[in-house]
Each structure stands twice: as C-alpha cells, then as structure tokens.
Amino acid sequence: MTTPVKYNKPRRINVVSVVLVALLAMAGYATYLYLPLYLTKHEAYRVLEETGSKVAGRAGFYADDGAARDELRLDMQRQIKGLGIDDPNIETWIELEGKQVRLGVVYSTWVEWPFDVVERQESVYELEHTIVVH
Questions:
Q1: In degrees, to the nearest 5, what angle opens at C-alpha 60 toward C-alphas 42 and 44?
Q2: Structurally, how many domains does the chain consist of?
Q3: Are 63 and 95 in contact, with CB atoms under 8 Å apart?
Q4: Are 106 and 91 in contact (CB under 8 A)?
Q5: Listed residue (107, 84, 87, 92) closest to 52, CA to CA
Q6: Angle at Cα 85 formed by Cα 81 and Cα 91, nearest 5°?
Q7: Which of 8, 27, 90, 94 has the fewest CB atoms inside 10 Å of its own CB, making it the most exposed?
Q8: Residue 88 domain boundaries
Q9: Is the pLDDT of residue 27 over 80?
Q10: What is the DSSP-derived secondary structure letter of residue 118?
Q11: Structural domain includes residue 23
C-alpha cells in the first residue's frame, strides 16, 4: 500500500504573494495616474455640451455676431482650463455651418511614472460636440 505524502505548509510570504502585492500596487498606481485624465476628459466634454446649449438657445445671434461667438469660445476655453488642463497649446473652436454647430477642444497631458518604469507619455485628447439647431 502507498504511503500518503505530507506536504509542508506554504509560508505566508512567498514569491506568489509578493508578486501579487506588487501587481496590485502597480494597478492601483496606474488607476491613480489615469483615472483623473479620464474624468477630466468627461468634464471637458460636459463644458462643450453646456456651451452648445448656450449656442442653441441663441443660434441666430451667434451666427451673425463673430465677436460674441469668439467671446463664448474664450469663455469655454477658460472653463476647460479651470478643470486643471494646463496645456499652453490648447485649441478650441465653435463652428456654425448651416443648422449644424460643432464645438471642440484639443489638448494634451503628460503622464510620468516614477523611476522611469514606463517612458513619459503624452496623451492627446480631441473632443467634439455636434448639435443641430432649428
């Protein structure tokens, strides 16, 4: 008859547990770095939607008055920069073509990992909101 094999209990801290903790720490830090970028992108789109509703309410006025449209665009840009976007090359636009209004923004942000684990990355975001006015 065969004798049963008795295995030693694994230690509490072993290679597998150390690797799992390291992976969880990296995933947590990646979330810490990238989640604010994702949330800022959605807040910037919210600003585009709000500005679009302002244009839709007075489409004829903004179609005729380029200075008022440019002031609205600058206000939209200030609101977007107020979200924490500090790109000096940010571009915003409000275009009226017939019954269609396009509002947009292009900006970039940099993500830096400590100890150069991952090379410095530039993330470019281009958001555009289109509405149809009657």
A1: 10
A2: 1
A3: no
A4: yes
A5: 92
A6: 70
A7: 8
A8: 41-132
A9: yes
A10: S
A11: no
If one compares 99 and 134, the residue with the highest pLDDT of the two is 99
Does 22 reside within a domain? no
Tokens 């940099």 found at: 110
- Tell me, yes or no, whether 30 lies in a domain: no
The one-letter code for the residue type at 27 is A
CA distance 60 to 69: 11
- 120: its two tokens: 């410095």
- Please, are residues 96 and 69 in contact by the beta-carbon 8 Å criterion? yes
The token pair at 115 is 């100890």
Q: What letter would DSSP give residue 82?
A: T
- Taking 90 as the threshold, does the pLDDT of residue 116 lie above it? no
Q: Could you tell me the two tokens for 40?
A: 């800022």
Residue 98 included in any domain: yes
Please give the single-letter amino acid code of residue 69.
R
- What would the two tokens of residue 3 be? 């004798």
